[in-house]
């Protein structure tokens, strides 16, 4: 007898559905094909689940064992419990380790992002990266976006011919696809909008910092009754309520896409703020002498342990780390 499935969350934790999606069990494939063919309500739910799975491109690195085991335990507990809260007589384990991993990943994804619960009530899709994580995602129009750590991207499933709008809080690099109708792609930040049709650029909207680096094509920046047109290689920032163009070295701006901090005579106060933004760990500078200092080095953005070791290797600092804080003193 088929169990009733009424939500995206239930689908993504269902063994047979994941076997159908990843084509690992011919019997599950046949059963779900029959179910979809005769039940339009289930077909609609399946279409939404498939769209979610296809829209998310997971960063190519393994999920740590602790998170996989936790998610797997939660999954087995869900499968092995009846509606009245009593344990079922038998817990059925998954036949495919691949399916088991994806089911666990789906639970991690849903519980950490809440993406479909949010979208079904507001018609907005939301993606968020954790501290120390980057992620590439394909948007509904085929455009690509890479999100830096601790970044939120909100967007809608756009209708054909309408403007494509997204909202960024954090940092992201966009490769915008041109459409046949040349519809606008608009990135909303805290203080201005970036308007394009097809191009590549980096945008930051974080802690009162708003800036754009254009690497290809052309964009128009609109905000605070200003309109600024940009050419490749140009950089603009919002400063003192004004959109301004500046000459910069683009390498430090784009280094995060290679999982690096590129510090080039960077004030320690600024470097500490960037580390906190990316890893969510407080960095305390002991004394004005440290805060007024500057560093020039390359450090990782995806491994806090190695970053702390890199700081400790700088001969002029003593670096102490606890679970919640990194303390930096002058030697």
TrEMBL record:
<dbReference type="InterPro" id="IPR012373">
    <property type="entry name" value="Ferrdict_sens_TM"/>
</dbReference>
<dbReference type="GO" id="GO:0016989">
    <property type="term" value="F:sigma factor antagonist activity"/>
</dbReference>
<protein>
    <recommendedName>
        <fullName>FecR protein domain-containing protein</fullName>
    </recommendedName>
</protein>
<dbReference type="InterPro" id="IPR006860">
    <property type="entry name" value="FecR"/>
</dbReference>
<dbReference type="Pfam" id="PF04773">
    <property type="entry name" value="FecR"/>
</dbReference>
<feature type="domain" description="FecR protein">
    <location>
        <begin position="128"/>
        <end position="219"/>
    </location>
</feature>
């Amino acid at each position: 007898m088929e169990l009733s499935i009424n939500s995206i969350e239930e689908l993504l934790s269902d063994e047979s559905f994941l076997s159908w999606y990843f084509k690992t069990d011919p019997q599950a494939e046949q059963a779900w094909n029959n179910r979809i063919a005769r039940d339009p309500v289930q077909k609609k739910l399946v279409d939404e689940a498939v769209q979610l799975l296809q829209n998310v491109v997971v960063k190519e690195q393994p999920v740590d064992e602790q998170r996989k085991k936790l998610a797997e335990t939660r999954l087995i507990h869900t499968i092995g419990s009846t509606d009245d809260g009593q344990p079922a007589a038998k817990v059925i384990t998954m036949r495919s380790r691949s399916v088991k991993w994806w089911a666990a990943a789906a639970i991690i994804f849903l519980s950490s992002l809440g993406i479909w619960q949010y979208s079904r009530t507001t018609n907005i899709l939301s993606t968020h990266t954790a501290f120390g994580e980057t992620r590439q995602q394909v948007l509904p129009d085929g455009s690509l976006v890479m999100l830096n750590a601790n970044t939120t991207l909100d967007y809608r499933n756009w209708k054909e011919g309408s403007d494509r709008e997204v909202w960024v809080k954090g940092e992201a690099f966009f490769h915008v696809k041109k459409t046949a109708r040349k519809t606008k792609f608009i990135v909303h930040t805290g203080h201005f909008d970036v308007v394009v049709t097809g191009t590549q650029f980096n945008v930051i909207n974080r802690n009162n910092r708003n800036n754009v680096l254009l690497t290809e094509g052309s964009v128009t920046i609109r905000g605070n009754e200003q309109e600024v047109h940009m050419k490749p290689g140009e950089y603009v920032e919002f400063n003192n309520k004004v959109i301004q163009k500046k000459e910069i070295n683009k390498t430090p701006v784009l280094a995060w896409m290679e999982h690096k901090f590129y510090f080039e005579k960077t004030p320690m106060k600024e470097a500490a703020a960037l580390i906190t933004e990316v890893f969510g760990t407080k960095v305390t500078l002991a004394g004005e002498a440290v805060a007024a200092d500057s560093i020039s080095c390359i450090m990782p953005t995806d491994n806090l342990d190695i970053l702390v070791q890199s700081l400790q290797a700088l001969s002029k600092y003593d670096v102490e780390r606890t679970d919640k804080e990194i303390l930096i003193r002058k030697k």
